[in-house]
Each structure stands twice: as C-alpha cells, then as structure tokens.
Amino acid sequence: MLNQVQSIALDKLVAHPDNPNRMSKAKFAKLVRNIERTVRYEPLVVRPCPRKPDCFQIINGHHRWRALRELGYKTAEALVWDVNDQDTDILLATLNRLGGSDVLDKKLALLKRLNKSAFDGRTAKLAKLLPQTSNQIKRLTELAISDCLKAVEKSKTQILNPLVFFLNDKQQEVIAKALSDAMSQQKPALSEAEWVKENRTRAVKNAAALTYIAQEFINSQQVSL
Questions:
Q1: Based on CB atoms within 10 Å of each CB, which residue in 17, 113, 200, 206 is the most buried?
Q2: What is the C-alpha to C-alpha distance for residues 90 and 76, in angstroms, rounded to an integer?
C-alpha cells in the first residue's frame, strides 16, 4: 500500500547509501531518550527498495530507525512513497534541511513552562530531551520575554549573511589563533562591529573578530598607500 503509514519490520528497512544527514552522539542520545520516554516518533519516509525485493529504502528517518533498533523495537511506522531515483535524491537533500525557525517569545514561553511544570526547574534533566544544553536552557528561561521581543524588533532591520569556506588543518590552526588574539583585544573601535560580550555566542564572537581582522588589514593597506 503506497502513500500510507505501514508497520514495517526493521530488518526490512535499508539505509540509503547517499543519505547526507548526520547527527551528533549527544543529539542521537536525546532522540533515543525521547522515543523511550514517550513511545512516540514521527513515521519514517521510505520507498520500495530498487535492488532488494520485499525491502524498503529509507528516505527520511535514518536516525529514528537506528534509535528504534537500539531500543529493541522490531517494527517501525513508515509512510511508503512511490518515488523514482531523482525524486529520492531531491528528498534526501531537502527533507532534513527545509524548515522554519523559532519565534523567540513563543520558544521562551514554552521552555519556561516545561522547566517549571514538568521538570521543577531541573534544567539538566530537561536538557537530556531537548536540543539545548542545560546552561542554554537556564539562560533562556531567565530571559524576560518583553526584552526578547524588543531584541526581535531590533533584529528585523538587520540581515545576516552566511559565509562558507573550507580550510585544511594548518589554515584552521592559523585562523583560530588569529580569531582568539582578536577577541582578546577589547578595543573601542569594535563597538560598531558588535564586539565580544560574555553572553554572545561563539559564532557572533568569531564574526566580530573576523570583521576586526579584515578592517585592520584594510586600514593598514590605506596607510601604506
């Protein structure tokens, strides 16, 4: 039966060899705990396996499949789609990547409610189930929602642009040292680049440090001219 949720034996499910999605050990452990605790999970998405009769190839849900095996399940709920190789490749590239983002005030309200009602403020216990760490949950639940709304309004006027490149080990070592040295130099000129503060993330700190290094290089070039 295609396009319907079916109960399929785990040994009849085959991982797609080109699945690009990876999950850290910490996040996988949280996935296992969530399924173990709730006995619920989103059905996998599969298709009839092209080269293995009576089997199904996983399109979405590789980690859920692994988690179910680790928990001793014999079957998995799966939605069976009839898709060709090209459409499968498109789904592999998009299903784990196309998604929305959190509405900050609603996310904070949700975390506060969970932390207070279900876990009595024990952030370490809550962190075993949620993507955030215990410290992140603690910081987020201590934030005032009104302050976050103001920050959201302010951020609407700013556009964040991704910058992606790849480094070998030596290049990474050199750049990491440069970023660390730049972070240690708390100069007044960096206020315009939103310089480092203790409550800022590593990504924000790196962005500010890289901006500082680039600006210093530009300034030195202007001086030499």
A1: 206
A2: 23
- In whole angstroms, how large is the CA radius of gyration of the chain? 23
Question: How many CB atoms within 10 Å of residue 207?
Answer: 18
In a domain, 161, yes or no: no
Between residues 18 and 205, the one the model is more confident about: 18
Q: Based on the domain organization, do 174 and 121 belong to the same domain?
A: no
Element (H, E) at 222: helix 202-224
Claim: this prediction has a pTM higher than 0.70:
no
CB atoms within 10 A of CB 55: 16
Secondary structure, 3-state, 116-158:
HHHCCCCHHHHHCCCCCCHHHHHHHHHCCHHHHHHHHHHHCCC
- Residue 78 exposed, middle or buried by CB count within 10 Å (0-12, 13-18, 19+): buried
Q: Do 90 and 109 reside in the same domain of the chain?
A: no
Q: Mean pLDDT for the chain? A: 79
Residue 215 counted as domain residue = yes
